[in-house]
Amino acid sequence: MSQDTTLPPLAASSRILPATTYDAILLAGFGGPEGQDDVIPYLRNVTRGRGIPDERLEEVAHHYRHFGGISPINDQNRALKAALEAEIAERGLGLPVYWGNRFWAPYFADALRELHADGHRKVLVLVTTAFSSYSGCRAYREDLATALAETGLEGELELHKVRQYFDHPGFVTPNVAAVRSGLHQLVESDSGAQPHVLFATHSIPTAAADLSGPREARPDGTAVPTGGENEWHAGGGWYVEQQRAVAALIMDAVGDEFPGVDWSLVFQSRSGAPEVPWLEPDINDAIEALPESVTGVVISPIGFVSDHMEVAWDLDNEALETCAERGLAAVRVPTVGIDPAFVAGLVDLVEERHVAREGDSPRERVALTALGPWQDVCPTDCCLGRAPKPTVASA
Where does Fe(2+) bind (predicted)? Predict the structure, then answer.
């Protein structure tokens, strides 16, 4: 899709699809091991094609082995699926919810076969990531296209994906409440506390960050920063732009009670070759660099929707240990998880796209930043990977 020069600089909101009637919902997750014997096979799935030997995978495996080889993410997705089913039933939408993962059972191919066997043909996909990036959006769409080809269901199943929901009230509101609660905890334990909020998200290579999202400017016409422009993030693109916008929105919302609190967007869970630039600063480096005047830290895992392994290990172990070494009081607030507002927001996104009967009106699209509402369909150059593959929900 070439960019129409008659459109405003940010044209994402113009790439929407008309509402239609869907048969079912597919909850698309990442997946994780369910026992010690699963850990290395799971990590082989995640790193397939990179030539990483098992001995190097074992260096990462200890995170999972610390928790009995069980990633929290699968039970969290089971809980989210159940919560979605309850909300959908409450609204009388009549849409069954299926679940499939990129890297562990139930795999996408398993879910697609089940959907088809049950008679469904048009499916709306809910992805468990809120922001635009290769790993958070395009990779899911590529893997779904691959699963359609592997199962022979191309032309049999039609898959559409809901938009990125980083600035939807269903995602923002629980994060506001969490940060507000964390600040209260710090201040109540120390009335003279000077807190700092660290919004933590997954680091990705700066090259991938720069290519995240469509190739368009901000609504005011200025360019989305790429290539690194200051000490707080090396790289940019829409991945960083969206998260900074949401963090600013959250801090503005809590400013009635906590005016003037400083905040930073920081990164975690870096992997890969050390010579390849990734988004910075690492959360532990950022904690070390905080001024002496800061007496407490609120850590908000803004880049994640559930308290999975990278939250449980990288934040609850490593980052909190760094805070303790600095003598800083610290509160790690929860992700949105199955917060009722988040679950309701996901079903609101479904109702933007699904109408039960022809002639019904879809739900109005809502966005809390100037960047949204985000696109339903992605341009072919959106969030490019190293070797682009066929995708679903592209034009």
Answer: 202, 310
Residue 201: phi and psi, rounded to 5, are: -140, 165
For the chain, residues with pLDDT lower than 70 are 1-8, 228-235
pLDDT of residue 223: 86
The maximal CA–CA distance of the chain, rounded, in angstroms, is 63
Positions at the binding site for Fe-coproporphyrin III: 71, 140
Angle 249-254-256 from CA coordinates, rounded to 5°: 120
Burial environment of residue 116 by CB neighbours within 10 A (0 to 12, 13 to 18, 19 or more): middle
Binding residues for Fe(2+): 202, 310
The token pair that represents 184 in the structure block: 């209260």
295: left (phi over 0), alpha (psi -120 to 50) or beta: alpha
pTM for the full predicted model: 0.94
Where are the chain's structural domains? 12-166+339-353, 169-332
Cα–Cα distances in angstroms (integers) from residue 329 to residues 194, 324, 325, in the given order: 10, 7, 10
d(CA 346, CA 94): 15
Structure confidence at residue 4 (pLDDT): 46
d(CA 108, CA 32): 13
State which H helix or E strand residue 277 sits in.
none
12-166+339-353 classified as CATH 3.40.50.720: no
CATH assignment of 169-332, among 1.10.357.20, 3.40.50.1820, 3.40.50.1400, 3.90.870.10: 3.40.50.1400
Is residue 333 within 8 Å of residue 356, measured between CB atoms? no
Measure the CA–CA gap between 148 and 392, rounded to whole angstroms.
9
Is there a common fold for 12-166+339-353 and 169-332?
Answer: yes
Cis peptide before 195 (omega within 30 of 0): no
Structure confidence at residue 235 (pLDDT): 61
- Kindly state the helix (H) or strand (E) to which residue 289 belongs, with its residue range: helix 283-289
